[in-house]
Structures are given as C-alpha cells and as structure tokens.
Design brief:
Blueprint (H helix, E strand, L loop, with lengths): L2 H34 L4 H27 L12 H9 L8 E7 L2 H8 L1 H21 L7 E5 L2 E6 L3 H18 L8 E7 L6 H21 L5 H13 L3 E10 L4 E13 L3 E4 H11 L2 H15 L9 E5 L2 H4 L2 H14 L6 E5 L8 H13 L3 E7 L5 H7 L4 E4 L1 H5 L4 H16 L3 E4 L5 H8 L5 E3 L9 H7 L2
Parallel strand pairs: 6-8, 8-9, 9-10, 10-11, 11-12, 12-13
Antiparallel strand pairs: 1-3, 1-4, 2-3, 5-6, 5-13, 6-7
Helix pairs in contact: 1-2, 4-5, 10-12
C-alpha cells in the first residue's frame, strides 16, 4: 500500500469518528433529558430539532470528505494540492531533495493502446517507484501526481546519490517497459532550499525537464559544423574529462579493472554524457574522430595509473573498431606514450549485428594479437550481444542492468547463473554491474562472476582519488 493510501485511510477514519461521536452524544442527550427534565411539548420539540441538525452535519461531513480526498483516484498518489502543501511544510530544506518525474510518451500510449492501458501504466509505474524506493530504504515517501504525466516527491537525502539511483530506476523502466508497453521517463531534481516558494521550485524543475527534452531533440540534428564546434571546445579547451569506476575481482579479492567514464563540457550545449555525444557522432559519422580524441587525452592523463596493476575498460564504437585507420592511429599513440595495449579492454555494444561477421572476427583478433582485450557491454539487453558471443573471440562479458535489478525474479536468477557458467566454459570472464547494496552484493557473489561493479564496491572517481583507493 502506498504511503498516500495510508494517509487517506487515516483521513477517512477521522471523518468517520467525527460522524459517530455526535451520534453517541445525541443518544446521551435524549437519554438524560427524559430523566432530568419534564416531558413537556416544548422540551420534546427541542430534542427532536437536534435530529435534522445532526443529519445536516453528517451529510456535510460526507460531502466535504468526498470533496477533500487526499489521493488521485488512478495512481493513488497524493493530489497536486496535497503534495504542494507537503513541500511547503518541509522542515529541513537544506538536506531535502525534491524530484520531478515525467513520462514523455503518455499521450502516445493513450492513443496507441487506449486510455485504460494508459491508466494501468501510470498505476504500475508508481508501484514500481514505491517498491524501488523501499528497496533503497526510503519508506513513507510522499509521492504526488502533479499533472496527467508528471509526479512530484521529496526525500531527505543528498541529491548526488539520488540522481544515480533515479538514473538506474528510469533506465530499468525504459529497458523493460510496463505491461509490455514502452515507457520513456525523464526526471529532474533540486534542493528544497533553492527557494522558499514551492511554485518557484516546481517551475525550476519543469525548466530542467524542458532543457533535457530540447537536448534530446536537438542532439540528432546537430550539423557537421556544430559537431566540430563541440569537438573544438572539448579538446582544445580541455573540456573532455574522465572518471574511473573500480570493479572487484572475486578471485583476487582486489580492484583489478577500472571502467573509464567519458564526460564532455561544452560552452554551447552544456554538460554532455558519452551517450549524448555518441548520438552526435553516430548521426554525423564521426565515431573515429571522437574515439581518437578520447584515447589521446586519456593516455596523457593515466600515466600515474600505469604503476598500479589494473586494467582500464574503455567503451568504443564498433564502427571505430572496424576502421583500419583507427587501429594504426591507436598503435602509434600507445607507442608514443610508451603504454602497453595489454592494460586496456575495448568495450563494444551494438543494436544490430554486423553483416560480415567473418571480417569482424579477423579485426578483433588483430587487436587481441597486439594485447588488447575485447568486452561485450550490456550483454543480455536489447542488442546483438548473444550473436556476437557466438561468433566473435570475446574476453569479457558485462551483463545488462536488467539482470541486477530483477535478481529477485527466479527466471533472471537462472538465466544469470547459467549464462555465467556458459561464459566461463567458453573461457570468457564475466562482470555484473550496478551492484549498489550489501544484500545484493552477497547475492551476486553466489553466482560467482569474475568481477562485480557498483556503488557497493566504489563510486566513479577522478584520477587523484582513484589512485589513492587502489592498493
């Protein structure tokens, strides 16, 4: 049961008491009146007059109760007025984060599948959110329906960690869908201390959502000259930066793999993630140029890491990997920096499988011959990972987030268990990612993957902090 439903039940119980108590009082008045006062017609009339007054009072309470319901009838979350009232009463705004969730494609769902299915999606979406929050020890969270496709809630917790958790939740919902219907979700969050006026807070959250929409809509339409502007800003103004997320080797019981997370700061377009940049380069056909710049700056930065016994995993476009010019560039770059390719894992993930699989196999083998290892990302997700596993010489498989988030489902447990067994029989290593709780960590360890990654192991960190962490 949602927290809002519990509060609605309490509200109705109080209303019922308000109705029942006067009835008991009225019975008491009748009983004592006939004992204490004379049975005159005036006294009898005055007592009878109390009955219509009580009936009117009861009808008023019932009518007012229906008019002042606390929850939305479809999602069972708080109404807009109620959630805004709760936001205005936040006692510790400095440590409280307000979150705005928006379902991008609800109108499309209503048109394609019908309003009833749209309502079902909304209801199940909130149930998933409530369950996810409870899993992460956020109980009795006040969630309110702000509009037909938007929700508001607040949690007393740092915004950085909440952003990571909500990213996991929204990606999980988008990857799996609800009731076999694709759902697109966006969120924005803000400290409650941003403004004392709740309307200003909500307006800012809405603006952040709109900025996200514009970014997603304009990204695929960026022209070649605009792309060059972004690259120029990122490279020549040193706006490209990296974070490193450690992975624990269960066999050696220490950090042996660091995943390199690429970010970009653009004066024109703001902060861009690797996924956003990838959409740009895929659209314009500049995958190789971008990946070359990534490796150029990365190799300049990581020289202190070369003293540590760790491998670095870098996501790379399969299109880049299949380009012979890139291989020549990469080998020259590694030779100049005096860094061995043996320290690097090249991670690929592709929606549709490459047609000339025999040629792709030869290309990958040529990288492995000089020391690189090859990893399959998002394995088991909506991509051609299993097809590549059949035909390509893979060194490491990284499982999709869906396996971590649905680990309590017996089907996913069996799949993960047997996938890992199969992969290890093929002499391929395996990694389970997004492990963010101790209980989940212990559960994943039972499946005996080679590596585990997630907040339970370490958060992504910059070079200075990660060097201090690795022993």
């Amino acid at each position: 049961m949602l927290y809002s439903e519990i509060k609605e039940r309490e509200n109705r119980f109080i209303t019922a008491l308000k109705i029942a108590f006067p009835l008991l009082l009225l019975i008491g008045i009748f009983f004592h009146s006939f004992q204490l006062f004379s049975h005159t017609s005036i006294n009898f009339f005055l007592l009878i007059l109390l009955i219509p007054i009580y009936v009117y009072y009861t009808v008023y309470l019932i009518y007012h109760g229906f008019q002042t319901t606390l929850i939305d009838p479809i999602t069972k979350t708080f109404t807009r007025a109620e959630i805004i009232a709760k936001i205005e009463k936040i006692r510790d705004p400095e440590n409280t984060t307000i979150i705005f969730l928006h379902l991008h494609n609800l109108s499309d769902i209503n048109e394609r599948y019908g309003i009833n299915n749209g309502d079902l999606v909304l209801s199940k979406f909130i149930q998933k959110l409530e369950f996810f929050l409870r899993e992460h020890r956020f109980k009795n969270v006040s969630i309110g329906r702000y509009s037909s496709d938007s929700f508001l809630f607040f949690i007393k917790h740092p915004s950085k960690e909440l952003k990571h958790l909500l990213t996991i939740f929204t990606k999980s919902v988008q990857n799996v869908g609800i009731a076999n219907i694709e759902v697109k979700v966006a969120f924005s969050l803000l400290s409650a201390a941003y403004d004392n006026d709740a309307s200003n807070l909500i307006e800012r959250l809405l603006m952040l959502i709109e900025e996200q929409k514009k970014s997603e809509e304009t990204t695929p339409n960026i022209k070649l000259d605009q792309f060059k502007t972004i690259i120029y800003e990122a490279i020549h103004h040193r706006k490209l930066f990296f974070k490193y997320q450690p992975s624990l080797s269960l066999q050696e019981e220490k950090i042996t793999v660091l995943e390199v997370l690429t970010r970009m700061e653009s004066q024109t377009y703001g902060s861009l993630s690797k996924q956003q940049i990838q959409r740009i380069v895929n659209h314009t056909g500049h995958e190789r140029e971008f990946d070359e710049k990534v490796f150029e700056l990365l190799l300049e930065e990581i020289s202190p890491l070369m003293e540590k016994e760790v491998l670095l995993s870098v996501e790379i476009s399969p299109v880049t990997l299949r380009n012979l010019s890139f291989k020549r560039y990469l080998l020259t770059l590694f030779e100049q920096q005096k860094i061995s390719p043996n320290r690097f894992i090249l991670e690929i993930a592709e929606k549709k499988s490459y047609e000339n699989m025999h040629r792709f196999k030869e290309i990958i083998e040529s990288y492995q011959e000089v020391g690189f290892k090859i990893a399959l990302g998002n394995f088991g997700g909506n991509n051609c990972g299993f097809e590549y596993l059949k035909y390509l010489p893979i060194d490491l498989v990284k499982f999709d987030i869906e396996f971590t988030k649905k680990i309590d489902d017996s089907k996913y447990q069996h799949l993960l268990e047997h996938y890992i067994e199969l992969i290890q029989m093929l002499h391929i290593q395996s990694m389970v990612k997004f492990v963010d709780k101790e209980a989940l960590l212990h559960k994943i360890k039972e499946f005996k993957p080679d590596f585990i990654q997630g907040f339970c192991i370490s958060k992504p960190k910059n070079l200075e902090h990660i060097i201090g962490e690795i022993k």
